[in-house]
Amino acid sequence: MPPHDLRRPFKRAAISDQHRRRELSLQRQAQNRQDAQHQARCLAQTILSLQNDSAEPEQEFEIVPQPEEQAQDFDVRQAARLRGSEARRWFAKQLMLPEWMIDVPDRLNTDWYVCARPAGKRCFVVSSNGTTVSRLRNGSMLHRFPSALPNGSRTNNSSRSGQSYCILDCIFHEPDQTYYVIDMLCWAGMSLYECTAEFRFFWLNSKLVETGACNDPSPYHRYRFRTILIYDCDQEGLKAAYSGSVPYMKDGLLFYNKHAHYQSGNTPLVLVWKDENCSQYVLDTDSTGQVPDQQQLVLELLDDGRLATSDDPPVVFGCLDRDFIQKELGIS
């Protein structure tokens, strides 16, 4: 190769397959349309009927996925009978979880939204049968309270059908005791699972204010709900989300593909970005708020002894000796 020719004789390997998985996710949306109305109704009943285990601390747990052959796929209605780790594992699969942004998506400025993520506790909020319940991703109850959401209190359910319910994806921000709504799954009994993010955000901003849920708290509306500003992901929108002022503590940026449906589990159609300028949780801290000398990482032990992340595909960090594994597990 001539000295002046600095081009590589081979093509650099892709940093990730996130782009390919985004395209596959959009294709699956178009091909596989499930009965989301039934799923949403069962989810609302499950969250409201699941008994709160007061012995368990109300904190979020890191969920370590199990191998596919060991994982149990529970029906939504059966989940009401789950307890402990099984309940936590099931609820962790119901939220739509973002992947870390490790590459720049195609058509970022036209096909994506960006918003500043509030810091706080991620939870489902369900209003039905004259009451409102919020549950953390581990299944434990956060609050039970009256609200101005559809069928969310005894004072505003007279004009609603008994089957009317509402499911919101929220972050509870403790400093101002406010639920910041980042997505809407169902509204007044109508499922939005198979609607695009573009429509869900439009419907959320249109309907939530109409109910009075954004008003100040009152005896019949204990917590205030607020929407967050959603920007087109162009230069102006990125600047506003990244450095603009917000009424809450910021914890990174969320990126939503405008065509994405609401799907349970991790998805490459929703991405998260964090750095020291837009989040104070870039690094783990101890109980005093200090950054420890070493950071912790939760890895999955695969059947062949490899230690890997839960990414798809997983990132392998090492391998344990089979004799060591059998000794630790007490297998002779």
From TrEMBL:
Keywords: Cytoplasm, Nucleus, RNA-binding, Transport. Pfam families: SPN1_m3Gcap_bd. SUPFAM superfamilies: DNA ligase/mRNA capping enzyme, catalytic domain. Residues 16-38 are annotated as: Disordered. It is found in: Cytoplasm; Nucleus. Residues 94-271 form the Snurportin-1 m3G cap-binding domain. Functions as an U snRNP-specific nuclear import adapter. Involved in the trimethylguanosine (m3G)-cap-dependent nuclear import of U snRNPs. Binds specifically to the terminal m3G-cap U snRNAs. Belongs to the snurportin family. This is Snurportin-1. It comes from Sesamum angolense.
